[in-house]
Design goal:
Elements lengths: L26 H12 L27 E4 L26 E2 L2 H15 L3 E6 L4 E6 L19 E6 L5 E7 L22 H12 L4 H12 L9 H14 L5 H15 L4 E6 L5 E7 L1 H7 L5 E10 L4 E9 L5 E9 L4 H14 L7 E4 L3 H10 L4 E4 L1 H5 L2 H4 L6 H14 L3 H14 L6 H8 L21 H11 L8 H28 L9 H9 L2 H13 L3 E4 L10 E2 L2 E8 L10 E8 L4 E4 L3 H5 L4 H9 L15 H4 L2
Parallel strand pairs: 9-12, 12-13
Antiparallel strand pairs: 1-3, 2-6, 3-4, 4-5, 5-6, 7-8, 8-11, 9-10, 10-11, 14-16, 15-16, 16-17, 17-18
Length: 646
């Protein structure tokens, strides 16, 4: 159940239970953390995506107005010989502390010596706080879990003078406590400064991770004395490797960038290093990309992938769409790590390199770090979430439903098939009621941000036909053809120049084809010739697909409560029944098309023109019925989207 706290309530009067859905982690994050903690212990120099001592049952999601904080043990400069167990008195009701951190540290140390982990919940801008055993959350019946509803907890209140007083304590647990097990609990595991230096020095000396860890264990007096488990050491070694370049890598980057800039002074590059001189982030933009962005800055797709897996440095690509409908590279980056600060650094410098011009729209996945960076840096840009990433989570989110396959199919139909906002709202609510998912926090979170991913809310904006980051992923796949999974940064940089050269050549060939080959028209209407003369061959072929769909379109009588063909305020309405199969969810639908003779404005309910920049078959059907022989130039020139929209 959700925690609802009035201003005048005291935490010692509350009966708090941790709701499963409040602490439900993303499936992929869970899998990565499980792999990190319990993965293979082989001698191979495996790489892991988790950086620290994390728990597979850790807290990830944030409630409105609450900070669900995963507990981390405070770092210290203790010697590598581990932690000395000095008896520590348990915090008791009525004790006063000068800060919340003081209470937490005291309870944390008591928990370590007793043998349990601690969760803490703090209300933002409030005087109430709660700490509890990490087994206190509501059990999950579908799978094994450490959640058993343990009652042990500590409530605290901040007084007017700023001091914190413990208002209530429950010391009894409903499970056995074993202090010797604390070393296995993420909250009590840490790698101190001295051990970090040993691990990194040994790794630089080319000592395998398994031997490196055994050396540290021997120096500490045994595995139980190092204050962590071997997996934490491996994660630390892996993290440090990301910051260290291999032999020749730094020089390869410098030489490549120097050569490219010597060839063209418009080549942009920027290297970010940390305080210890290690590589942290790299951004580079080809001169052709900067020139293309001046014309094709309507919509940009951004996504990251692990092209250079040897160092697990995410490769990020800014991708746009040119006048051929081809994906064009607008910038590349290598990032470590993928934090909000790294993405802010990337977006800020990318915008600066592009002359300070923000894209009109950007499409990314739902990564919290990317969302935060876009919100802070690209304030003038409309942000959309990748629809494919959202839909790919349906099997996991709906797996407990009795009618699993039917629910997924109906949900996709609601998303793709809803033509009007009111239709979407009605069908969404009916779906929740039908499958008893009114309290599903994942769906509620999606609904709260529906304007950022549901197509019916976004089709009035030009997206070059994109629903997902498929173009960025396609660019990643393109680079995959030139690089192998274990290539060094030196090899990566060498192959990058080859790959980008091939990409430019393909665009050059498309330009040649459009200028030297004329496509045949399918009708005798002059407006088709207008489009052929204005569009590239690739775009004209896509427009002719709409002409082909006209055979499935028919003018039908007005819908209920609407007037067929009646002119109101100079606008004439028509209704077009479309039986063409665009996807598996909408075999037919009746669209409303509006025509205003004054100014020759045309508008369709499907918003295909606003979304893709091409007139739809419904408008073309009305044009043939009205015997419109030529089309206004606003619908022809694809580089002026804002001027063309009604």
């Amino acid at each position: 159940m959700e925690i609802n706290i009035e201003e005048e309530m005291h935490l010692d009067d509350m009966d708090v239970h941790f709701n499963d859905e409040h602490f439900n982690t993303d499936v992929q994050s869970r899998a990565a953390m499980m792999h990190t903690l319990f993965g293979s212990d082989s001698d191979d120099e495996s790489h892991f995506q988790n950086d620290g001592c994390n728990d597979d049952d850790g807290l990830q999601n944030l409630d409105d107005g609450l900070d669900n904080v995963p507990v981390e043990a405070p770092m210290s400069n203790d010697d590598v010989n581990g932690q000395e167990n000095v008896h520590f008195e348990a915090p008791q009701q009525g004790m006063i502390y000068d800060s919340f951190d003081s209470i937490f540290n005291a309870y944390q140390e008591y928990a370590r010596q007793t043998g349990f982990s601690v969760l803490k919940r703090v209300l933002k801008n409030s005087k109430y706080a709660l700490m509890a055993c990490d087994k206190s959350r509501v059990p999950i019946t579908q799978k094994s879990s450490k959640r058993i509803g343990c009652p042990a907890r500590l409530n605290a209140i901040r007084k007017d003078d700023g001091f914190w007083v413990i208002s209530k304590t429950i010391m009894e647990h409903n499970h056995d406590l074993d202090p010797t097990m604390s070393i296995l609990m993420p909250a009590h595991r840490k790698i101190d400064v001295h051990m970090k230096r040993l691990l990194e020095a040994n790794d630089i000396a080319d000592i395998r991770p398994s031997k490196n860890i055994r050396l540290c264990e021997m120096q500490a007096g045994g595995p139980d004395k190092i204050g962590c488990i071997p997996r934490d050491c491996r994660n630390f070694i892996d993290d440090r490797r990301r910051f260290r370049l291999g032999v020749g890598d730094a020089e390869a980057i410098r030489k490549l960038f120097a050569r490219l800039q010597h060839r063209d002074r418009n080549f942009f590059h920027l290297i970010d290093i940390d305080d210890e001189g290690r590589l942290r982030n790299v951004l580079w933009i080809h001169p052709r990309s900067r020139a293309a962005y001046e014309y094709f800055n309507d919509v940009v797709s951004f996504d990251t992938t692990y092209l250079v897996n040897r160092y697990e440095m995410p490769f990020g690509a800014f991708v746009g769409v040119n006048h051929h409908g081809q994906s064009i590279l607008l910038g590349c980056a290598l990032l470590t790590p993928e934090t909000i600060d790294s993405f802010k650094w990337l977006f800020e410098n990318w915008i600066e390199a592009m002359g300070g011009v923000h894209p009109k729209a950007i499409i990314t996945d739902q990564c919290e770090s990317i969302k935060g960076a876009v919100r802070d840096v690209l304030q003038n840009t409309f942000h959309r979430y990748c629809l494919w990433h959202i839909m790919s989570k349906l099997p996991q989110r709906f797996k407990g439903l009795a009618e699993y396959n039917r629910a997924i199919s109906e949900f996709k139909g609601i998303v793709y098939d809803s033509i009007t906002i009111s239709n979407f709202e009605t069908r969404w609510n009916d779906f929740l009621v039908k499958y008893g998912m009114q309290s599903n926090t994942w769906l509620q979170g999606l609904y709260d941000e529906k304007e950022k991913w549901v197509p019916v809310y976004l089709r009035h904006i030009f997206w070059a036909g994109m629903l997902s980051t498929q173009r960025s992923e396609g660019m990643h796949a393109y680079f995959d053809d030139y690089m192998h999974s274990r290539c060094s940064l030196k090899e990566f940089m060498e192959q990058y120049e080859v790959a980008i050269g091939k990409k430019i050549q393909k665009e050059f060939i498309a330009d040649f084809e459009s200028k030297n080959k004329v496509k045949k028209c399918k009708t005798h209407y002059h407006w088709e010739k207008q489009f052929r003369d204005a569009f590239t061959n690739n775009m004209f072929l896509k427009f002719q697909e709409e002409i082909d769909r006209m055979v499935y379109c028919h003018i039908v009588p007005a819908l209920e409560n609407d007037d067929d063909g009646v002119v109101e305020d100079g606008v004439q309405k028509f209704y077009v029944l479309d039986r063409s199969l665009r996807n598996n969810f909408r075999p037919e639908f009746t669209y409303k098309v509006e025509y205003r003779a004054d100014g020759e404005y045309l508008n369709c309910q499907c918003h295909e023109f606003e979304f893709r920049g091409l007139l739809c078959c419904h408008i073309l059907t009305v044009m043939t019925m009205k015997d419109i022989r030529t089309i206004n130039e606003r619908y022809v020139h694809i580089d002026s989207m804002e001027e063309r929209c009604v």
